[in-house]
Amino acid sequence: MPNSTCRLSVIIPTFNRLQKLKNALRSLQRQTRPLESFEIIVVDDGSTDETLEWLTRAVDKIPNLRVLTQEHAGPAVARNLAASFAQGDVLLFIGDDITASEHLVEAHLRVFERMGHNLAIQGGFQLAASVERTRFVRYLADKSAAQFQLNDARPGGALPLGVFYTGNCSVPKKLLQESGGFPTDVVYYDDTYIGWKLQKMGVLIIYEPRAEAFHNHTQTLGEFLIRQKQAGKDAAVLSSRHPELRKLLRVDQTVLFEGAVSDIVKKLAKRVLFNRLTVPILKWTVKSRFVPFSLACFIFSGLIGYEHRIAAKKVQS
Questions:
Q1: Range of the domain at 225
Q2: Tens digits of per-residue pLDDT, 279-304?
Q3: What is the rounded distance in angstroms from the CA atom of residue 54 to the CA atom of residue 11?
Q4: 191, 215, 239 — which closes off a domain?
Q5: How many Cα atoms within 13 Å fall on the side-chain side of residue 163?
Q6: Are the C-beta atoms of residues 203 and 175 closer than 8 Å to each other?
Q7: Which alpha helices (H) appear in 11-138, and where do they start and end?
Q8: For the whole model, what pTM was predicted?
């Protein structure tokens, strides 16, 4: 039976991003749902700035705020810690660089109230107005599946395997516990892994764009490629335990002669175009304003795939 009175816990891991965290918390104080209907749990992941001091004072001003602390161990550990203390039937995970729309909590809860608790929800993302729309940012937001695979998602529809992003997603606490929680030995793909586990359990992940969040995070190509190196390593770690994740996490790209003939041809073409000799040139080339946006997007995609593949291969070897 749908639960019309379910309580929700908003969980936010944070590390050294106090100003963005303040914005996130301010947005959560402007929700259309009463503050007493949900709690906010912030986990300070060993910040070395003034985050913990500010949070200690904030609990006296924000009535539904709870603060937990841990030594720096990463967001997955922080999410598991918060989930173990959460009082809500539903856990809503957002990032500390997220500004919530005023109906974010309302939109998540309405789906559970209408459809029951054997599902999870992926909310929508928009770029925050403060983020400069460089060519690379436009590529990530509009053209790429490297960050969010939601451009083709159907509102109210079930999402493909493993599409689940902790920047704005919710799941009943009971289902997260049954899944075993977030893997704590990786930095990236911990949410993809949880989405995969939930779907293996028969849980639908529903896309609800009305649960809208604004992502306040500027990324350069260089920063994202560093991220991809870690992501490639993490993909190899998870795939070593669960070989069925190899395609989902793109670890199968490390093996050339595997898959259909068309897959092998694509892999071969990528290796000819993007290798240790061409990559430095392509990084320099894509900075030019004279390179058309469509060509820049192709190069961005190839560079991201290259860093991911090489990092995964190193872990496997």
A1: 221-316
A2: 999 999 999 989 999 999 999 999 99
A3: 17
A4: 215
A5: 24
A6: yes
A7: 18-28, 51-58, 75-85, 104-115, 135-138
A8: 0.92
